[in-house]
Write a structure and sequence with these properties.
The chain is of the alpha+beta class and 258 residues long. The protein folds into 2 domains: 162 residues, Gyrase A, domain 2 (2-Layer Sandwich), CATH 3.30.1360; 45 residues. Helices cover 50% and strands 12% of the residues. A 4-stranded antiparallel β-sheet has the order 1-2-4-3. α11 packs across α12. The radius of gyration is 22 Å and the shape is elongated.
Length: 258
């Protein structure tokens, strides 16, 4: 914080949310303009029907697929590399040891970055566009895809803005963005997303390894840090031992949820 008690990082993040998406499109950081005006009408109709039937916003982070399916399956991969036995023999031997022995072995081996790379997750996320842009910039994940940005998912007002009494003025900027989006959407829907701001939320997907999640959390960038924590909390259901290991070894436990 500065001498006035203002968190400069939090303030920087709040004002970054006001940056127009058009600037990033122009710089080639994120393509949101669809140059193909001849879309398949049946596909567009199906999309509209799905939106009407399942129009809820949904979770902010959701695991689509997790590899390996079972946490202990990764043990066979790491043991195979240091033995002359077949993979089937290694898998059979590991299956015979007790749960506690496997849990202990997995916890020990998770310190190995080679094993961490064997854990991968395909996730669907709902974050502000600024987070999507930052992940693409840092190249911490692969197979990143995103839906056409829309104001439908709204935006968050940072706590520092609320505390400073500027929430109304902050919201007015997003209101003007929405007005421009609505005007463009009538005649030029393909370029309407350019009226949005980096603080608008967007639904997108990525594939990330355990190494990548650690890099997010240990980064000095608040957007990436918070995203890493969100992803870590999400994989808890699928890989509880991985979650337990990371939550105890990373010095960021204040953000972890039950």
């Amino acid at each position: 914080m500065d001498r006035l008690g203002v968190d400069s990082n939090e303030a920087k993040l709040a004002f970054e949310n006001l940056e127009p998406l058009a600037d990033y499109e122009a710089a080639g950081a994120l393509q949101v303009v669809d140059g193909d005006s001849d879309k398949d009408n049946s596909t567009l109709k199906l999309a509209d029907e799905l939106a009407a039937a399942y129009g809820d916003i949904g979770e902010e982070a959701e695991v689509i697929r997790a590899w390996p399916r079972q946490e202990f399956d990764a043990l066979a991969d790491i043991v195979f590399d240091v033995t002359d036995s077949s993979y089937r023999e290694v898998k059979t031997a590991i299956d015979k040891i007790s749960y506690l022995q496997k849990a202990k072995l997995l916890s020990q081996q998770l310190k190995n970055s080679q094993l961490q790379r064997k854990f991968e997750y395909r996730l669907e996320l709902l974050t502000d566009l600024g987070t999507l842009l930052k992940v693409r910039e840092k190249d911490l994940a692969r197979d990143i895809s995103w839906q056409t940005p829309t104001p439908r998912y709204g935006y968050d007002i940072p706590k520092i803005i609320e505390a400073s009494g500027l929430a109304e003025e902050y919201s007015q900027i997003f209101d003007r963005s929405l007005e421009l989006y609505s005007l463009l959407d009538i005649k030029y829907p393909n370029i309407a997303p350019l009226a949005l701001l980096c603080g608008h939320k967007c639904r997108w997907q990525l594939t990330i390894s355990l190494n990548g999640i650690v890099e997010l959390i240990e980064s000095k960038d608040e957007r990436l840090d918070l995203l890493g924590q969100k992803i870590l909390n999400t994989i808890k259901t699928y890989h509880p031992l991985v979650f337990e290991f990371l939550s105890s070894s990373l010095d960021k436990n204040r953000w972890l949820t039950d």
